[in-house]
Amino acid sequence: MLAKHLGRADGSDVVVQPPLSQAVGYVVVVVIGLVIAFTMVFVTKLLKRTVGEDNKKTEMFMTANRAVRTGLTASAVVSSWLWSTAMLGSSLVGYVNGVSGPFWFAAGCSPMIVFFAVLGISCKRKIPEAHTLLEIVRIRYGTTAHIVYMFLCLVNNLIAVANMLLGASAAITAMTGMHIIAATFLLPVGVALYTFVGGIKATFLTDYIHTFTIVIILCYFSVKAFTLEEVGSLSNLYELLQEAGRRNPVAGNEQGSYLTMTAKGGILFGILHIAANFGLVIMDTSFFIKAFSASPQAVVPGYVVGGIAYFAIPWCMGTLASSVVLGLENTPIFPTYPRRMTSAEVSGGLVLPYFAMTIAGKGGAAGILIITFMAVTSTLSAQVIAVSSIISFDMYRTYFKRTATDEDVIRWSHYGVIFFALFASAFSTMLHYVGVDLGWTLYMLGVLTCPGIFPTTFTILWKRQSKAAAIISPLLGMMTGIATWLGSAYALYGTVSIASTGATVPCVWGTVASAISPVPYSVIITLFKPENFDWADFRKERLAFEVDTASITSGRRSASITREDIELNDQDPNNSQPLLKRWGRVAAIWALATFLGHWVLWPLPMYASKYVFGKGFFVAWMVIAIIWLWGTLFVVGFYPIIDGRDQLLSVWNAVRTGGLTKGGKAAGPAQASDTGSGEATPSVIEVEKAGGNR
Predict the structure, then answer these.
(1) Strand partners, 641
(2) What whole-number distance in Å separates Cα of residue 371 and Cα of residue 454?
(3) Prediction pTM value
(4) Which intervals of the chain are annotated as region Disordered (predicted)?
């Protein structure tokens, strides 16, 4: 496995006993999961009766009427990447490589989240009625391309969920002794329930609750670590980490130190991670669904703010947790004392759980149990709704019943939710029994997720890419990546096995080949017969369902819609183009700035200079990381409340005065709009329908 270079235990057979009972594990995974699910079901029904959000309508179920505001969008974006592996994996690479590991983990995520704002606003401008990425592919290239990209997206979703479940199940088992297979199958239960009922809006709301809870606990850990006498301060933590480097120097690191960005393993992981994550973002239909669900004014700021805020989570917690573990694993307070963590423990993602147990005992274990559960269920929800959208829109509505009604599509969405929850659990179980764990999937997943990066981006941004290029280049790219990955494993280690294919170098070569090779494939194939696609053709096919706006037009304004949103969907579609193009330029500038900052200007000079952190520099490094983490708490926790205060007030007033709706009809007198004009404001889709905006 990837951690095989860490060295063996010192001969002691110390076994770490789970600090919590199995009963606690089942209570969290099953009982709390169901409580959250039923709470979301209640909230979904409340929103229907107070602000007219009817999840029996497809546009509400799948895209939240394209009206989600910036705060909730930013929180949902952070949540989409707040996998259990974001915390478990960043701590893992920090333990293996030192301070460079968590930094490269974070830098491998934030640039492409921000870059997605470019794709999101481009889709808003060119095909505002879309529900999924695959609808765009089908309209531009036809059935064959649609099926190819459906396969690529489903592979992406499946490997992503397996990565989450493997890491989360191992952590929950370590904390409670709960059987790992029981955890694997029970984790999706609550997710499937609230996604089944609430659709994408329930996903947004649970994303918010889960992410807020997780970041609160992480902020607590960022303070609690320094109340431990053995740590005490950042200066003392520096001394502990320096001593750890002397005890167990890291091969490939400058002076063998954990305190340097000049780390061969770290930068190799950074290259692998940024390529793999571009694939995970661009080929994950849940990101497109969330972009389609955001109001036009919320797409760019939501993804930019969310992407930058996210950076602090793996950077801060990965560095802090791995530093404390490395510094204290030779002391009696560490769970594995007197031995080091084994390769299996590290690769299984147990660095963060052992950190929490060390600084806070059973309370720390409970905190890890909660954040692992929250993280995996929140991100699972996004994956489940993504796959259910593929099954309902791209399979059923496209190939089985073109005239499908709201009821038909919702029913098949429900089938998709149940099917994927069960299939993903079974697939993860199979991987566990063949010896695959978090470390293996974390390193190799890019080989399978990356082939569609550039062909998909070209589909949205480059009108010259030909149909043949769009179909052939990702398939050739996947074959190239797999061949390079397996060939490198065999050439370097003499065998193709779980261990050799999970090693760093084969995974880096395979991922890079998988990501980059489709570029020349696509360009060369396109040169034979380039297209000149007319973006206006996207608007010729009607995709959106009619929206029942009875409760809105009766006088109750949808507080999620701003007047700027209405302007962007004016009756003349050409009127909105300059504004959307301006947002596109803003998105491109932020995407470039984020990449240059997080991947070039900040880390590479430190790598090239072979700098080993001094005490003052390490203290500043950690202070900035902790402050950034607390800033993320504001973004994911308080900003959505501030930004969505109008709708919260509308719901509260409706409940307080009894002005609820029934069957989509207003039961009480019309409520005044936010502007005080007393005029109702229609939903975005309603305005699009009125103006023929397609």
Answers:
(1) none
(2) 34
(3) 0.82
(4) 661-694
